[in-house]
Amino acid sequence: MEPPPPQSPRDEHPHTHSHSSTSIPTTGTCCKCGGATTHAPPSQSPTSWPDLSSPPAYRPIRAPALNLPPNNTQAIILTPVPQSQEVPTITPPFHFQIPSKKITSPDDIRKFHDSPTSKNFLGFIVALSESIRGRKISDPCHESATVSNIVSIIENLSLWVDQIPPVQQSSRYGNISYRTWHERVTENAESFMLQFLPEDLKPSTIEIVPYFTDSFGNSSRIDYGTGHETNFAAWLYCLARMGIIKEEDYQAVVTRVFVKYLDLMRKLQLVYCLEPAGSHGVWGLDDYHFLPFIFGSSQLIDHKYMKPKSIHNEDILDNFSSEYMYLSCIGFIKKVKKGPFAEHSPLLDDISAVPNWKKVNSGMLKMYKAEVLEKVPIMQHFLFGWLIKCVIN
To answer: Cα–Cα distance between 191 and 133 in angstroms, integer?
Structure first.
């Protein structure tokens, strides 16, 4: 936003207020000069962090973003904290099918979220989060052959990025080489699945491959967002439904598989300049991701020294980002975005004022349900089949 033009003499007279006072506390920021003022701030403000703490004093000195989402803070506050659930495994006969899109309206969203499938999928996310509570990424954990196989697959995809360099083009975002990379992923996805699927579950590839290929962004738009990230979680959920991933694997699924996936997606974002898909811009949590903030806040619950406000300590970010996903996300954002953190990431800045990580984690889970899983623009692209059912009619 362009700064306001210099004031003319006739503008100066009405622009009077106290910039410093020992008796009256300041409650806002002057939109003309940027100084403290005793006038109350505008009623429209960025989405506040629900159910956690009073909002901090910071408010961006600029007009609200045009794409500011509707404020449903109260609805999020009233929402119960999602609880973990055990994933029911399928039994024969199997009815695998090609998944399809089924959500087109808020009413469809409501019907889906009233279903046991929706609650169980979110419960699976919560269970993954709980599996790494208080644990570092490098902590030893049970690593099954399947988990090792999946990690190897993601490492393969990362090597393909090196083999398919970006081309020179006039457009800054959306390098077309990404389409070549994504096409190779799509062509090889089924063979990847067959590496770890037992014989009786190999027909499931028609259902789980679309979730896998949609996990890495959209090749037409050359973009990536929380909907694609949710597809990766859905792919893992399908593996859990088939018993390929078991509860004892959950810690490794997050600290080995998901961490590798996150590394790959950051590489794709940097190398091919992927556009954020449906981002809320500066008012959003992050341009691309949500789940690492859930998992990362769980890692830090009851940490002796690091608090939510520790994200502002550069030494902590430098020394502990490799062990804690939340810190890794903050560090990555600070590297790729210019300007003060409070301006380009105001919601994350607000969250840093929360007193403890447990409240951050519960708030993140509630927000993920409300801002990702209950949003038509995101869920209209989500796929449903036999493993993840959606009965709309």
So the answer is: 34
Question: Which of the four CATH numbers 1.10.357.10, 3.40.50.720, 1.25.40.10, 1.20.120.1150 does domain 105-384 have?
Answer: 1.20.120.1150
Interatomic CA distance for residues 261 and 284, integer angstroms: 21
Listed by start position, the domains of the chain span 105-384
At 168-218, the pLDDT tens digits run: 988 888 999 999 999 999 999 999 999 999 999 999 999 999 999 999 999
- What totals of helices (H) and strands (E) does the chain contain, helices first? 17, 6
Token reading at 322:
């490799």
Of the CA atoms within 13 Å of residue 8, those in its CB half-sphere come to 1
Q: Is the peptide bond before 93 cis (omega within 30 degrees of 0)?
A: yes
- In whole angstroms, what is the distance from residue 279 CA to residue 347 CA? 14
Quote the CA–CA distance of 250 and 128 in Å, as a whole number. 6
φ, ψ at 384 (rounded to 5°): -130, 135
How far is the C-alpha of 251 from the C-alpha of 245, rounded, in Å?
11
Distance separating alpha carbons of residues 249 and 196, to the nearest angstrom:
15
This prediction's pTM? 0.81
